[in-house]
Structure formats: C-alpha cells, structure tokens
Amino acid sequence: MIDCFRILAVLMVLTETVRGYLEGIPMIISKLFSIGAYGVALYFIISGYLSYKSVLNCSSFTQYLRKKIIRIFPMYYASLLLTFIIGAVILKIYPIDWKWIYHILFLNMFVPNKEWMWWNSVNFFWTVPAFVAWYLLSYPLFKTLVPDPRY
After folding, report:
1. Within 10 A of 139 (CB to CB), how many other CB atoms are there?
2. Inter-axis angle of helices 36-56 and 127-145, nearest 10
3. FRET pair for 127, CA 20 to 30 Å: which of 16, 28, 38, 43?
C-alpha cells in the first residue's frame, strides 16, 4: 500500500515539472498540474516513515548507513555526472565552476551563496542533501526517542 502512495507522490511531482514546460495552457489544466508541491511533502512524509521501518530492521548504525549509502550514492553520483556532462559540458545550460562541489559533498542545501535558488533548482539535487541529513539523524533519534514496538 505504501508503494501506491510513493507512486502517487512521484506522479504529483512530475506534474509540476511538466507544467513548467507548458506555455499557454488553460488555467484549469494549469491548476491541475500545480499539485506537485504536495507530492514533495507526501514523499518526504513517506520517506520519514520508511526511515523508521529501516531503523527497526538494522542492528547497528553502521549497517543502517551502509544500506543507505549503497542505495543512494551510486545513482546520485551517476545522475550528477550525467547532468554535468550533458547540462554543463554539452548543452552549456549550467556553468562549469567550483560550485558543483556543493552537490558532490551534499552541501548545496545548507551552504548559502548568491545563486542558492539557481543551484537548488538543478534537477532534483536539492532533495538529496535533505535526505542524507535526515538519514544521519534518524537512526540516533529513533533509537533513543522511540521505543521499539517489537518489545
């Protein structure tokens, strides 16, 4: 059942993305496509719940982090590399400068700079530092503040 809500959240976010590329569409259709922000919130709520379930299934913080790193980092860095190659090198729609290091180190959401809004609108990369920060905090929070329901 939770997977259905995850799919719904992703579809809601995609509608917002598509709406950005549609010009001159009727207002009613534009309003229909404006549900994307709710999809982001729904996805974050579901991720918090699933993070709790993941903490319950791990015996140590190291095991928990290893699972998260294996699941997130390869796809994140592959996406970041493709975005850099296609967007910055080939299409030249993104600048080639040192600020890519913010994305590499997951700092783009936390380090203020003049182009903060621009850099956080580069595809989906603004969400990943939020998830990484949450994953780092969730294990100790859940283990200390929430009793294990299995006992």
Report:
1. 21
2. 40
3. 28
Q: What letter would DSSP give residue 115?
A: T
Chain centre to alpha carbon of residue 106: 11
**This prediction's pTM:** 0.73
pLDDT digits (tens, 9 = 90+) for 29-54: 767 767 777 888 898 899 888 888 89
In the DSSP assignment, the letter for residue 85 is I
How many other C-beta atoms lie within 10 A of the C-beta of residue 108?
Answer: 21
pLDDT (tens digit per residue) in 13-29:
877 777 666 677 777 77
Residue with tokens 């580069």: 122
Give domain limits for the chain.
1-57, 59-151
**Length reported for the chain:** 151
Tokens 């400068």 sit at which residue? Answer: 97
Give yes or no for a contact between 108 and 125, defined as CB atoms under 8 angstroms apart. yes
| Separation between Cα atoms, residue 150 and residue 119, nearest integer Å | 43
- Distance, CA of 118 to CA of 99 (rounded, Å): 11
CA 98 to chain centre: 22
